[in-house]
Design a protein that fits this description.
Layout lengths: L6 H12 L5 E4 L14 E4 L5 H8 L4 E4 L6 H6 L1 H22 L3 E7 L22 H19 L3 E7 L2 E2 L12 H10 L5 E3 L5 E2 L2 E2 H13 L2 H4 L2 E5 L5 E2 H12 L6 E3 L14 H7 L7 H15 L1
Parallel strand pairs: 1-2, 3-4, 4-5, 5-10, 6-9, 7-12
Antiparallel strand pairs: 8-11
């Protein structure tokens, strides 16, 4: 697993170990944390852009979960070359090494950002793809490499398009922190959540345990149903940022007092998935409600201070 020291990857590593799998993690610990790697997992320190490190990591593996990436639209705007190097070159290195090592399947973590400002909401996988940031372009390019490797070589590939994942271990103190941990920390500390735009923009927030479930399904689904394809992973419901603040107020017992600032370049107004294909062909369905996911997230933030 690449990126197994990160937010989503560490939860997936936990789930794999719990069911009895052997797990090897490749992570350069740039944004991941050593303490996130479960005790039962083998850690290989290295970058996905280093072919030798990737080859060591995938040797003897049946399935590779590729989650490592340079995330965040804002980071890609600040340094497009770094995002391209990690997300495109890094993905190609993982695919190439996996093919050479005889890996059965690669499950790739893509992003809903590939749709850009989708004209069809809820958005199915066959909607037009119009990425609006270097990050989104890099994820789409990596998706195409994933599909092509699945078509040309004896390597099954599946891409999962995540929609605004949240949950425990998603840090509010990173440079490009996501909106839920940022809002939650501000509310818990008595601060003012910063809202970019008017707050009516909406997202299909997905609890991390459901993303883990989607990865497990993608690793085991029949190849004829999923290989070479991309699938949306989200509940298929949307909440505006203003609704998110209201929900956090209910969970924490604190009335949020947001500050509104200018919209950010590259952001989309509305994002909501049509996840029919994942339910039908992967056998996946979300199990966590938005409210329960927020409660679990807030409890974790309180526990770490």
């Amino acid at each position: 697993m690449t990126g197994g020291a990160g937010f989503i990857g560490s939860h997936l590593a936990d789930a794999l170990l719990t069911r009895g799998d052997r797990v090897r993690v490749l992570d350069n610990l740039f944004s991941g944390r050593r303490e996130n790697v479960p005790a039962g997992a083998e850690l290989v320190e290295g970058s996905i852009t280093n072919p030798e490190a990737v080859a060591r990591a995938v040797a003897g593996c049946e399935v590779v979960f590729h989650l490592a990436a340079h995330g965040a639209v804002a980071r890609s705007l600040a340094d497009p070359l770094a995002s391209n190097e990690a997300n495109v070159h890094g993905t190609l290195a993982v695919l190439n090494a996996s093919r050479d090592a005889g890996v059965r399947r690669v499950v790739f973590a893509s992003s809903s950002s590939v749709y850009g400002g989708a004209s069809v909401v809820p958005t199915p996988e066959d909607a037009p793809l119009r990425p609006r940031s270097p990050y989104a372009v890099s994820k789409l390019a990596a998706e195409w490499y994933t599909r092509v490797f699945g078509e040309l070589f004896e390597l099954e590939t599946v891409a999962l398009r995540y929609f605004n994942v949240f949950g425990p271990r998603q840090r509010p103190d990173s440079t490009y922190a996501a909106v839920i941990p940022l809002f939650a920390r501000a509310v818990l500390s008595g601060g003012e959540p910063i809202v970019h735009g008017d707050g009516t923009q909406s997202r299909d927030f997905t609890f991390v345990a459901d993303v883990v479930g989607a990865n497990l399904c993608a690793a085991s689904a029949a190849a004829e149903l999923c290989s070479g394809r991309a699938f949306n992973v989200a509940p298929g419901t949307s909440h505006s940022l203003l609704q998110l603040l209201d929900a956090l107020g209910e969970v924490t017992g604190v009335v949020p007092r947001p500050t509104f600032v200018a919209s950010r370049p590259g952001d989309v107004t509305h994002s909501q998935a049509d996840a029919t294909a994942a339910r039908r062909d992967l056998g996946w369905a979300p199990e966590w409600s938005f409210a329960d996911g927020l409660r679990a997230t807030v409890e974790w933030l309180r526990s770490v201070g």
